[in-house]
Amino acid sequence: MAPIVKLMSAGGFIYEKNNSIPFVVKESPNRIFHKMMDFLLNCKLSYAMFHSTPLYNEIIEEIWTSCEYSGTNCTLQFTIQGKEYIVNSDVLQACLHIPENNCLALPTYTEMVNLLNSINYSLPTDNLGKIIRRGLVREYSYLADAFIKVFSGKISNFDALTNSMLILLTMLLTDRYFNFCTQLMYEIGAKLGDKANRKKNIYYARFLMMLANHVSPAPLVISNPTSRFDCFVQEKRVLTDIPRLNHNGDVPVVYLPIIEVTTSNPVSLIVTSTTSVAMESVAVTQQTSAPATKPKSKKLSKPTSGASQKAPIVKSTTQPKGSGAGGVRGEGRGEHQGNPKDKVGELSVSQTSPIVSSQQALLEKLD
């Protein structure tokens, strides 16, 4: 197989292509997915799934190297430009505009099996930790792929639909949001692993940058503007791969009521973001198609309920130096009102719209 080209910063950090923005360009060949695209654009998780903000190596890498996850308290503790922050699921919920909890408990095993049956899942459901997308009708396979690319750290297996992702997806499709961000914090914590043995593979870059912009009391000053890169986007290739594999091609699709309601109004916005930016001092590494090596992690406490902290805590004010440049090339598998420009760099600019419609260039190429 051809090698996978990944983003690598000057500091040697590899940015894994998870936490992507769903690909929702409507074209005639992918007509069968248009209704699911409309659903994603209008669902209650649309901000978390489509918000695009400039990413800066120096911010993301400082968070990644300093961050520690507490499974007991369900918190992330990290520094941004020398200031220490502790955030919990409430802070993440506000940052990602996730709906408030509206039920008493997570979906049960029976409820998840019933959901799978209701959308004509065709394979055995005796082990929800091993549900695979080959059992899904094509439209739901695309939905699952978009959801996994946004929220899951497991990106190496086309069929992967872990138990955590099934829980989150079930909550979306049944309009239930108990402890959604606690589950997501657990996913981020699992990828962080043990700080002492942490590798240089970075996951959830978009969410980390969104958190940095959300908790910082002032616009972040970027010392190295060339360290900027854009959010990843779900690969268009999935729109041809799914029909080609023809999983359950003869099984009728059953759209759940929430999808029917959410897509009742036509959507006029085209949402995406470019995945490649020309920058100076771009360093690229080539990886084989095998999954990236996972860092060793300390045992995590699985989430049960959200923490009560409502705001981040600022503890110190030491100012660090910036880090190196980065760039994007090829495909892998799988915010603040600005002040005048600072002398040492530029401000991290806020993206106020929850939906991005910057795909004109790509559409022109497609035409």
Description:
The protein is of the alpha+beta class. Helix 3 (57-66) packs across helix 9 (205-215), helix 4 (89-96) crosses helix 9 and helix 6 (138-151) packs across helix 10. It has helices at residues 34-42, 46-50, 57-66, 89-96, 109-118, 138-151, 163-173, 180-192, 205-215, 238-245, 257-262, 360-366, and strands at 4-8, 14-15, 55-56, 68-70, 75-80, 83-88, 201-202, 221-222, 228-229, 283-287, 346-347. It starts with a strand and ends with a helix. Residues 348-361 have a biased composition (Polar residues). Residues 284-367 are annotated as: Disordered. Residues 330-345 have a biased composition (Basic and acidic residues).
Secondary structure topology:
Elements: E1 4-8, E2 14-15, H1 34-42, H2 46-50, E3 55-56, H3 57-66, E4 68-70, E5 75-80, E6 83-88, H4 89-96, H5 109-118, H6 138-151, H7 163-173, H8 180-192, E7 201-202, H9 205-215, E8 221-222, E9 228-229, H10 238-245, H11 257-262, E10 283-287, E11 346-347, H12 360-366
Parallel strand pairs: 2-7
Antiparallel strand pairs: 1-2, 1-10, 3-9, 4-5, 5-6, 8-11
Helix pairs in contact: 1-6, 3-9, 4-8, 4-9, 6-10
